[in-house]
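for the record, two folds in this file. i put them one after another cuz i was lazy. first one right below, seq on top, structure tokens after. the second one comes after a little note so u can tell where it starts
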Amino acid sequence: MTLRILIDMNLSPDWVPFLQQHGYEAVHWSTVGDPRATDQKLFAWARDKHYLIFTHDLDFGTALALTHAQGPSVVQVRGQDLLPDHLGPIVLAALRQHAPVLQSGALVVVDISRTRVRILPIQ
């Protein structure tokens, strides 16, 4: 099953064609929801439509931990240069390596030097 990826407002829409050309179904929140929507609305949309959330927002990991949610999965990217030209290969490697846990529920934190994985729900 191909991962479906919802890209948060805090990441460039340039991620959409980048992820699509690598075989992922990807949409940017600005094309499917209200750009001013709360994180809870974005979570609900992603969960209901079976998308994982790709974000730079640290609040998503906190929300998963506080609510003990079982989904949606979140891929959180950290760094200074957040464009696909810079982080694309690292993000692709993380998506491929962790696809099974992302399909069942996980928080994956990706930065230039390492990737960390927490299975949902976070206790």
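(here's the note) second protein begins now
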Amino acid sequence: MFSSTYESAIDAKGRVSVPASFRAALGGVSRIYVWPALDGRACLEAGGEQLMSDYRQILARMSPDDPAREAIVHSIFGRSADLKMDDPGRIKLPEGLLTYAGITGQIVFSGAFDRFRIWNPEEFAAYDAEMVAKTRASRGQIDAPFREALAAGAISNAKPSNGEGET
């Protein structure tokens, strides 16, 4: 799972280090696929072999003539860069993808569960603020499923121990 946010810089040779926790989430493979975000935001989406395998399985269930399938295939597989990390965990993002995302020097890596995103820091700050506001506005949407899972015993309501016994 890709989680957390990291800020870095592109070096003089145009390379950037993929965060160590993201490299670990890739399962030790050195291949990364990167493409323009599907939602049209000025960022890049990225993932490893597992994510691409998931997409292949989903797309294989769709008719080859389905226009939605064709659009997704083009948007992910046709517009992606297949990158190889070097031993220290660096990648070189293609100029066209950097231009798409407005990335020039500083870069933000943002975890997104089964993938990660690569941002220009200003675009990320705006996205972050938007998502925080949406989270505050939609907190109630997770309350019912949480209560149902709690009632079913699927999750525990126990408070974490403070390590000092009962107080």
